[in-house]
Task: inverse folding
């Protein structure tokens, strides 16, 4: 199972002003090692312009310059981290260590809560454009030569199935007990009125009740209550919505292929 702990990310700044975070401190440290802004930019994965802009911002933020640099183009001019820059690096490291210690202490003290801090913050802060995002626990992984089938428990009554590449499953360390997010785009959700009377090829078949329907100029958004406090959102054409005749309170079934389920680690 994924081991989750509360961590802290430090940034320094004032309202309305640019902030100094770990990324800029890493750039300063790289400049100190490399003696060149261009070489430091390569080390930390920034473009030459982005690194120069960051150095300019840092020098503007503090009373004394943090970096003394001589422009030399992409081949690099000389750059030196000043005593003020080294002092900032040291101060930031001490503050970060103190924050990390506080986060570890808070993590231990609140570990007995129903939703420990790491789980709470991770779930609340997750952002995705996908309308359907579900936290699940992997119950079974069936490995294939190319693809693996991942079966997941959504609730005691509901389960989801995803088909992902065997390489992805291996690199992500997905195994029974792993906590994951299952993501499904709303246009991938096929709706049927009532309960299908015959088997369908889709691996994921979830019956429920229409909770709401919102029509637009071309498409209709239909939200299905599938029980246990969970819902599925589908985007279908107005013509399809009218043909199905679905209205709030009607029984309906949501169906989607295992290959349309994206698996993400928290």
Result:
């Amino acid at each position: 199972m994924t081991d989750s702990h509360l961590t802290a990310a430090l940034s320094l700044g004032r309202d309305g002003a640019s902030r100094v975070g770990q990324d800029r401190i890493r750039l300063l440290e790289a400049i100190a090692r490399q003696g060149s802004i261009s070489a430091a930019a390569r080390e930390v994965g920034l473009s030459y312009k982005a690194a120069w802009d960051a150095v300019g911002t840092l020098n503007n933020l503090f009373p004394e310059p943090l970096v003394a640099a001589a422009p030399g183009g992409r081949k690099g001019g000389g750059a030196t981290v000043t005593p003020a820059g080294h002092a900032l690096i040291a101060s930031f490291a001490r503050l970060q260590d103190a924050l990390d210690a506080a986060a570890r202490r808070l993590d231990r003290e609140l570990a007995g809560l129903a939703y420990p801090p790491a789980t709470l913050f991770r779930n609340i802060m997750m952002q995705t454009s996908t309308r359907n995002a579900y936290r699940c626990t992997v119950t079974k992984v069936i490995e294939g030569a190319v693809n693996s089938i991942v079966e997941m428990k959504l609730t005691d009554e509901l389960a989801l199935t995803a088909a992902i590449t065997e390489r992805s499953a291996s690199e992500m360390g997905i195994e029974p007990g792993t906590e994951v997010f299952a993501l499904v785009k709303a246009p991938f959700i096929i709706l049927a009125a009532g309960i299908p009377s015959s088997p369908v090829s889709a691996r994921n078949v979830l019956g429920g009740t229409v909770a709401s329907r919102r029509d637009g100029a071309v498409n209709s958004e239909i939200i299905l209550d599938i029980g246990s406090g969970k819902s599925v959102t589908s985007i279908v054409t107005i013509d399809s919505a009218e043909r199905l005749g679905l209205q709030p309170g009607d029984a309906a079934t949501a169906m989607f292929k295992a290959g349309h389920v994206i698996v993400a680690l928290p």
The longest strand covers residues 132-143.
